[in-house]
Design brief:
The strands form four sheets. Strands 1-3 form a two-stranded antiparallel ribbon. Strands 2-5 form a two-stranded antiparallel ribbon. By secondary structure, it is mainly alpha-helical. It is built from 21 helices and eight strands. Strand 6 and strand 7 form a beta hairpin.
Amino acid sequence: MMKKNINTFKKDLMGSFTLARPFTKGLCSLLIISAALLAGGCEKFLEKDPTFIVKENFYNNETDVNAGLAGVYDILGKEQLYGNVFPVHFSIADEGFYNRSAYTAGPAVYVFDASDPNVSEAWQYLYEGVERANVFLSRIDDVDIDENVRKAAKGEVKFLRAYYYFLLVTNWGDVPLKTEPTASVNDVNIKRTPQAEVYDFITSEMKEAETMVKTATEIGFGGRVSKSAVRGILARVYLKIPGYPLNGGMPMYEEAIKCAKKVVDPTDGPKEHGLNPDYQKIFTNYAADKYDVKESIWEVEFYGNRSGDFEGGRIGNTLGLQCNEDQPDGHGFSYGLISTTKKLFDSYEANDKRRDWNIAPFRYTYSSASGVQLVSDSTFWTGGQIYNRNCGKFRRVYEVVAHNKNYTPQNFPLLRYTDVLLMLAEAENEVNGATTNAVNYLKEVRDRANASDISATVTGDQEALRTALRNERFLELAFEGIRKFDLIRWGIFVSEMNQLGKDIASTGGTNFSFGALAGNNVSNRNNLLPIPVLELSLNDAMVQNPGW
C-alpha cells in the first residue's frame, strides 16, 4: 500500500504553516496494486529474484514510474518500521519505558535474541526497500518521460536507498551493500560491507540526490523527499560518523555544518523553513491531516482509518495517550504503551510549554454510562505520579476521521527544523567552540518553548554548551525515535541506560519498579541489533554481531 500523496503533488502552498493533505483515491488504488506487485512473498530479501518488476510490460511510461516510486516510499510506513516497531520497540531510551508490567521479554526491555520477529522483519523490509530502489534505478533511464520528472524521481529513490542503508548500518553495523537488482535466487551469499564503506556510499548518494530533487516549496508537503530533507538527513549522517563506533573525526562535523546551514541560512535560494510558533500545533497537524512545510521537513505518510485503500499506522495508538474508548466519534483508543521517565519529566523547567504536551498530565477514562471524561491537568496526575504519565505527543483526539481502534492517520516526523538547528549548533560547537551563532541556534529553540535563557552561561564554554545541547535534544525531540540514536553516537547509551535502571528502581516504587527492566538489561551488545537468525541460516557469508 502507498502513502496517499506520492503521486498527488500539490505545489501551491495554502497558508504560511498548514496545508490540507491532498489525495486522489483512484490513483492511490492504482499505486497500491503496483506496490503489492513489488512486495513479493520471500522471507529473505537478499535472495529475491525480482521477476515481478523486470517484465517488458512494466516501466514503460510515467504512470509506471510513479507507481515504482510509490513502492520505494511504501517501506517507510510498514508496521515493522515507522508504522509501529521503530518508534515503540526499537527506540526505548531514557525518555520512556514500556508501560506493561507483564512485558518481560522483547526489544522494548532488551530481552530478546536473533530470532526475534521484530528484528528479522525490520531487516527484511529495509532490504526490500533497497531492492525496490535498485530495480527502479536499473529501469528508469529506459522510460520515455520528461527529463525533469526522471531526474527528480531518480534523486528521490537514490536518497531513499541511502536512507534505508543508513537505518541498516546504524542498527546492525557492517551490512551487505547491494546496489544492483538481484539476478538469481542463487545469489545469497553476500558478505557484510565495513561500515566506513557503507557510509561512503550513503553520503555520496545523498549528495548526488541533493542536486536532483525538488525544493520543499515546489513539493508543498512533507511526505516527499525535498532538497531540505536531503540536507537535514545528510547532516544527521555526518554527525553520526564522528561518533560511536567509527569516531570519524572533525571533518565530518564541518560537513554537517555545511549541510545544516543550507537549511537554516541558505545562499542558493529563499529561506523555506522556520519554527511554528505553537509547539503543540506541530503534532496536532500530524493528527488532523495538515502539513506544516516550514517546521516539518520530512515525515512518514499515513492516512485514514483502514476503511478504504489507504495505509494507517499505529502512531497515537501504541505511542499515545491512554484511552479505553473504542468509538468512531470519540477521543481515539490508545494503549498508552510508552510512559515517561522521571528523568525526562524533571529535565523540563516548570514553565516549559513542551513538558505537559510531550508528557500527558492526565488520561482519558470512558464508560458507556458517562461517556468520555477528560480530567484536567491540574487535578488528575499528582506531583508524585510521574510514572503514570504517558507519552502525550501524538494525541488521537485531534484526528479528523472516524476512529479505527488500532490504526491512525497520524504522520510520523523524520526531520523537523528544530532538529536541524540543534544539529547545526552541535557541529558548530565541536568545530569552533561555543560561538554566539551556536548559542543563538539553541536559544531559538528554547525561546519557543518558553524555557529560560541560558546563553550567558554557555557562551564561550564548549563543554557547557555540549551538555546543554544534548539536554535540549532530549527535551525537544522526546519520543520521536532520536534519543537512542543520539546516546549511541555519543558513546553513552549503556551508561545512561544502566543509570536509568537504578533511578527507576529507587523512585518507581512497587507499582513501577518493572520500568527499570530495560535500563538494567542494556549492555554493550545493545549498541547494535543482532543479525537475524534466518539471514545467518541462508547466507553462508554472514557473521553475527558481537555479544549475540
